[in-house]
Amino acid sequence: MKTDSLRAGKLAAVLVAGVLTLTACGGGSDDDTEAATVDSKATFEAGTTMATLQKAGKITIGTKFDQPGFGLKGLSGAPEGFDVEIGKLIAAGLGIGEDGISWVETPSAVRENVIEDGDVNLVAATYTINDERKKRISFAGPYYVAGQQLMVRSDNSAITGPESLKSNPDAKVCSAAGSTPADNIGTYLASPGQLVTFDLYSKCADALKNKQVDAVTTDNVILLGLVGKSDGAFKVVGEPFTEEPYGIGIKKGDTAFCQYIVDTLKKASEDGAYEKAWSSTAGEVEGSRVPTLPTADACS
Ligand code: GLU
Prior knowledge:
300 residues; alpha/beta; D-Maltodextrin-Binding Protein, domain 2; 2 domains; four-stranded parallel beta sheet; elongated; disordered N terminus; binds glutamic acid
């Protein structure tokens, strides 16, 4: 499996009920728990994205490299997590095994760009479906629904949820640039200066540890993964206050590819591969429950 990183100049369930306590984080997928079975017999109409990828025998997938449970690049050099497993399922249905997948790190703010520019064939990266993004790309899904929450240092009793930010105007909250949580948190702030953004959530976690910020906000499942890796230093507080339906980002208007992804995920939910993808990754979080695949939106 190959890995790439983005060119530097490129940038500028509601949590499924039950994934509420994370006391130990796994997040890695073991080779013996592989969910995807490569389909070497699939046939696709000539000229479609599916036929092109199948013929090439390779695919480039954008995902996160620093989000335990969803997309985390480990010592093996290959990313691991639920999004990674979903990407492998999509590739497998095209007859492409793990060796044919190139993984590209796609921080929140570059996702539309890399799809538009054709640097990746798809993005599976805790990517919330919304109308603003749909102006530039299309989504297949949702395949999971998260919700935004806050994470603080374990000894912090002043911040108990987003409402605490106005009453603690000196508190700083960190999120990723170009993410929906960075937008959503705006209404809860005493002033815009309370928000600090980095390209990656791992940098927010470092800033929280170093006391440069007092809270981190993003999707609950991302925060739970970071809590699990924090050795007890962090905790998630308050209830989820948004809905973040995760979709697979693809080129705008590629409805046939969208439909292929929707059908592939539906099949995976029926034959147990979706469940396996979850349980070998984000599902290793203690107390988590396997999500049910949400009904997909119409492809457009
Ligand atoms: N799901 C949210 C988003 O797409 C937050 C997670 C992320 O930044 O990847 O913006």
